[in-house]
Amino acid sequence: MASRKLKLKPYSKKVCPKGTISRRKYSYYKKSIRKRVNVKNACVKSKGLRSKLKKPIRAIGPLKEGDLTKYNYHIHLSEPMRHKSLIQALKAYGYAPLVHKINAIRVYSKNTAPSNYKLYTKDLEYIKRKFAKKYSKSLFRRMSRKSRKSRKSRKSRKSRKSRKSRKSRKSRKSRKSRKSRKSRKSRKSRKSRKSRKRYM
């Protein structure tokens, strides 16, 4: 199967100066006016690590859009509503993938939206606090299986190494013993020859 490439939408065609990035146009509902407000595309100050001349240690990669929003998870919702939608997502994805998804969004919003970062951390802590014990047993079983396999492979490697070392030691000892026997024989033969010469 060929891997699907994510098609990312461009922010805007506007060319921005150094230290700024192009922001895509968007709209939101303002409660005080009770109307939808349209915001135009513009050049905004970059808050990423690369703009601060800091190279990121490790990148998570591009995120898939709509993985959590299709279960009505939005950051502007109230805490119980967010928790309810996260439980629905948990049933669909499972514990570990959901934690990875929220953590990825949380990391990306650390510099760009610190207020959202705090809310994502709260949601992540809620999931870990409520569901970690329930799902940790299955994860532990998987990990234990992997650890058993790794232990077996380590033991087999060690046994192979020990066998090789034993063989090498035996071969060294046998070589030394052969050499010593040969040297003893040669000495004895020399001595016997000398003694014969004297009596002749």
- Rg for CA atoms: 36 Å
Intertermini distance: 95 Å
Helical segment count? 3
Helix/sheet category = mainly alpha
Strand order of the largest sheet: 1-4
The secondary-structure element order is EEEEHHH
Please outline the major beta sheet: 2 strands, antiparallel
Note the beta-strand portion. 5-15%
Mean pLDDT: 77
Overall geometric form = elongated
**Any low-confidence stretches, pLDDT <50, length ≥5?**
1-11
Kindly state the percentage of residues in helix: 55-70%
* Count of distinct strands: 4
Set down the secondary structure blueprint.
Elements: E1 20-23, E2 26-30, E3 35-39, E4 42-45, H1 79-93, H2 95-112, H3 114-199
Antiparallel strand pairs: 1-4, 2-3
Helix pairs in contact: 1-2, 2-3
Short account of what is shown:
This protein is mainly alpha-helical. Helix content is 60%, strand content 9%. It has a domain at 67-146.
How does this structure look, described?
The protein is mainly alpha-helical and 200 residues long. It has a domain at 67-146. It is built from three helices and four strands, in the order ββββααα. The strands form two sheets. Strands 1-4 form a two-stranded antiparallel ribbon. It has a two-stranded antiparallel ribbon with strand order 2-3. A hairpin with a 4-residue loop joins strand 2 and strand 3. Helix 1 packs across helix 2 (95-112). The longest helix is centred in the C-terminal third of the chain and has 86 residues, at 114-199. The radius of gyration is 36 Å and the shape is elongated. Mean pLDDT is 77; it is low at 1-11.
